[in-house]
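RECORD TYPE: inverse folding
INPUT: structure tokens
STRUCTURE:
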């Protein structure tokens, strides 16, 4: 009888340990979730959009490829080349950023920022 109780206690300890490990790892998942992109916030070209290009695009889109996405030249290049238009979902820039054949891909958060920036009029703000 005593043996049986010990065994049950062991099983309970293991179950509690497993539950707490599960709890910890699910907390981690939440803390790594990307922050939601606020559609109604004002999105700025200089501080929100250009850094996306600088980090992900300029290795290829330098002066030799249209659109050039280099800081200081990108806005004009995108405008002149007709890459930004409304509705934002069908602009060449957004379509290219969301097409699977165009690598490396930007994150979903970055795509949304570009989408909202175009929707808000694609200002050089
Ligand atoms: C590894 C190189 C490479 C990277 C990095 C890259 N591109 Fe491109 N991009 C290309 C090439 C090559 C083309 C032309 C062929 C094509 O349309 O896929 C192109 C085409 C485009 C076009 C369409 C041009 C047209 O005439 O229709 C857009 C817009 C564009 N890229 C945007 C971006 C953006 C925004 C990023 C960063 C998020 C990016 N690219 C990153 C290589 C790259």
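DESIGNED SEQUENCE:
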């Amino acid at each position: 009888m005593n043996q049986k109780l010990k065994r049950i206690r062991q099983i309970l300890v293991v179950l509690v340990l497993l539950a707490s490990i599960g709890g910890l790892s699910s907390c981690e998942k939440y803390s790594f979730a990307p922050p939601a992109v606020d559609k109604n916030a004002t999105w700025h070209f200089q501080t929100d959009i250009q850094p996306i290009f600088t980090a992900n695009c300029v290795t290829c889109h330098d002066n030799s490829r249209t659109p050039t996405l280099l800081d200081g030249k990108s806005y004009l290049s995108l405008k002149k080349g007709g890459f930004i238009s409304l509705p934002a979902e069908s602009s060449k820039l957004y379509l290219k950023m969301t097409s699977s054949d165009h690598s490396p891909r930007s994150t979903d958060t970055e795509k949304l920022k570009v989408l909202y920036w175009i929707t808000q009029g694609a200002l050089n703000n």
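NOTES: The chain has a mean pLDDT of 86.
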